[in-house]
Amino acid sequence: MTLRLQMLGTGGAFAKKYFNNNGLLCTEDFTLLIDCGITAPLALHQLGKPLEKIDAILVTHIHGDHVGGLEELAFRMKFVYGKKPVLYVAESLAEPLWEHTLKGGLTQEGIACLEDAFDVKLLREGEPTQLSPKLTVELIRTPHIPGKASYSLYINNEIFYSADMIFQPELLTKLVYERNCRKILHEVQLTGPGQVHTTLQELLSLPFDIQSKISLMHYGDEMESFIGATGEMSFLRQHEVYTL
Ligand SMILES: Nc1ccn([C@@H]2O[C@@H]3COP(=O)(O)O[C@H]3[C@H]2O)c(=O)n1
Ligand SMILES: [Zn+2]
Ligand SMILES: [Zn+2]
């Protein structure tokens, strides 16, 4: 089953050389935008991708580099295309996404709640959900910021796409050895203490066979100086199209 991934950006929250870590995941008949950060509208414009070609958006957690572009997207879909974008979101994130992030900008006549701006599809953690005939996504809650929910994705029961997350070696080991995970798209923090992210040093402690499945994303502007220093892992490049 062919899945294609094109990252709109592969940068961390403060990167300036790279757009926000948001990706277009495509089957032959469906395009899912994974996260829609502050830079997503500009990245889509530069790639020549019209918003109406996006069939749905899925958000992993509530940080600007993952949801900061939703206001523009919703307004342009409404006023330019006359459409309500489909939004997949974890049950636990729907209310805070509206109350804490989108309400201020989107509220106006005709828009009083998240469902007025988006065709909201709630996802439950641990329950694989079919988004289209060839695309199934399961949310796996992974730790990021204490007290804030964040969800990584298990795609088609074989590809792990990490949200921003603290290193979870047991999860990665279990996915590879017990759930036949064949590809891991993982966030990485190259320098400084991880705290709320996974450091390169932590990922380098994984067995080589797991490392060889990992592509690194959500990195800082210093990425180029780490080429050749990532063990069996490689860097995902923004705008390149990968067959997964
Ligand atoms: N305890 C924290 C919380 C946040 N941060 C930084 O803020 C960014 C928010 O977006 P992010 O992509 O999750 O990356 C976070 C950290 O860089 C951080 O460095 N330490
Ligand atoms: Zn982030
Ligand atoms: Zn985050």
From TrEMBL:
SUPFAM superfamilies given in the database record: Metallo-hydrolase/oxidoreductase (SSF56281)
Q: Which residue intervals define the domain Metallo-beta-lactamase in the entry?
A: 19-218
Superkingdom of the source? Bacteria
Catalytic activity entry: 3',5'-cyclic CMP + H2O = CMP + H(+); 3',5'-cyclic UMP + H2O = UMP + H(+)
**N-terminal signal peptide:** none
> So what does this one do?
Counteracts the endogenous Pycsar antiviral defense system. Phosphodiesterase that enables metal-dependent hydrolysis of host cyclic nucleotide Pycsar defense signals such as cCMP and cUMP.
What is the protein name given in its UniProt record? MBL fold metallo-hydrolase
